[in-house]
Structure formats: structure tokens, C-alpha cells
Amino acid sequence: MSEQVRAPKKNAPPIQLTADNSPRTRLARRFMRLLGTLLIWRTTVKVTHHGTENVPRHGPTILLFNHLSQVDPPLVGGMITFRDVTPIGKEELLHNPLTAWMMHFWQAIPVKRGELDMQALRRALYVLEHTNDMLLIAPEGHRYKALSEPKEGFILLAAKTNAQMVAAGISGTQNFRRNLLRLRRTHVTINYSRPIRLKRKLTRQEYRAAADEVMYYLAAHIADPALRGLYSDLSKATTNYIEVVG
């Protein structure tokens, strides 16, 4: 399976370009950052963030976050100014005119939920192995009011690339839409963890347990305990499969 992923057939769809190898993408992302600054960061939210110095500047890196609102991805990625991100988002975003153009111009990776999307997997591996972009992933695969069970795809990617994982715990954005309707700014807190990585090569049967360990690590960095959901009891956190880097 590894060979099929790393060396796709000649008739497979081409690997999408990222900011590292496409001047057009770099220009589009620069414009969208400016737009985000004007429409989000300076007008609708007030962000307090901690730990961006923990984010690696080089090497395969997966940035994980708890997903509460549609504004989470640009906020979590936007606080990091020294390195770019390639988000992974559900394919349905391509069918929404409001989000489709953002997915296209940012060169985000659409993924088909509920199945093994080999094209998305190839693109994600390419980003980790051949560019300096980080992958931005919501491990649950969808928005939830509090942490829920994750998909295991991010563990698969970390296992194949030995990528470091940084947890970004975000809180406050669950109030974004309500505050926007009331013309109020939303106070948001984002905590970036020290990077972790898998201790060793895992069997497929160990992916689930490793994913749960990462989710407890993410929960520990969410400022509002009410948003930790299934992973609220931090005393249950273990480190059988993960370790802090450095």
C-alpha cells in the first residue's frame, strides 16, 4: 500500500501544487491573509494565543485543532506567521459558493468523508514529504460542540512520514455566529502545544489507541474545560504511543 501511495500511477490525477512550488498559490494566499485580517482578525474577533514558539519551523508537521466554527481554520493557521499551512477539509465545502473559492485559491485538500480517499491521502503525503507547509487537520472530521471521537487518518499520516504533531486548542469560536449577529467581537483563545510524535511504528490495530492519546493531549490545551467533551477526564490520558519532542 505504501508504494501505491508514494508512487501513484501515471494516469492518476496530478498532485496539487502548494505554496512551496506555485507562485500563483503564494500570491493567492497572501491576498487571502490580507482579506482575513480585515474581515476577521481586526473586526469580528479578538484573539489571545499562546505557544506559537512551539510550532516547528521545518520538517513534516501536522497541526491539529478542535473544530467549533467555520472560522477555526483561518484563525488557527493565521496566528502562525513564519510557516504556511495546507488545510484538509470535507469535499462538501466545494459545493458551497462561499467556501469553494477559498478552498480553490488556498489549494486546500478536499477529502471524501466515510471512505479511504486515496487522492486526498496522496496529496497530504506530498505536502508533508515535499514542501514546508504544515497540514491543518480537524481530527474529528467535522464541527462539534465539544471533543468527540476522531478519525484515524492523521495517525496514518504521522506514521508514514514520522511527522510531528502540534495540538491547537481553541475556545470561544462557538459563540462567533451569535456575536456576529449582535455586532459583537468574539474573544478567542488558542493554545499551541509542544510538538509530539509517535514513539514507534504502530500496527493498524494500535491506531485507535494512539489517536485517543493525541485527543487527550489536545484536550489539555483547550482553555474551556466544557469543550473537552469525551476527553474531559485528563487523568485518563496515557503516553504509550506518543512522546513530547525536545
- CATH class membership: Alpha Beta
Can you tell me the CATH superfamily?
Glycerol-3-phosphate (1)-acyltransferase
In terms of DSSP E residues, the strand content is 15-25%
Separate helix tally: 8
Q: Mean pLDDT, rounded to whole units?
A: 88
User: What is the overall silhouette?
Assistant: globular
Structural class: alpha/beta
CATH architecture: 3-Layer(aba) Sandwich
Number of strands: 9
Oligomer: single chain
Taking the alpha carbons of the first and last residues, their distance comes to 32 Å
How many separate structural domains? 1
**Rg measurement, Å:** 17 Å
DSSP helix fraction: 25-40%
What does this structure look like?
- It is a single chain.
- 33% of the residues lie in helices and 18% in strands.
- The chain has 246 residues and is of the alpha/beta class.
- It has a single domain, classed as Glycerol-3-phosphate (1)-acyltransferase.
- Strands 1-7-6-2-5-3-4 form a seven-stranded mixed sheet, with helices on both faces. A two-stranded antiparallel ribbon has the order 8-9.
- The longest helix is centred in the N-terminal third of the chain and has 19 residues, at 23-41.
- It is globular.
- The chain starts with a helix and ends with a strand.
- The model is unreliable at 1-14 (pLDDT under 50).
What attributes does this structure have?
globular; 7-stranded mixed beta sheet; 9 strands; 246 residues; alpha/beta; Glycerol-3-phosphate (1)-acyltransferase
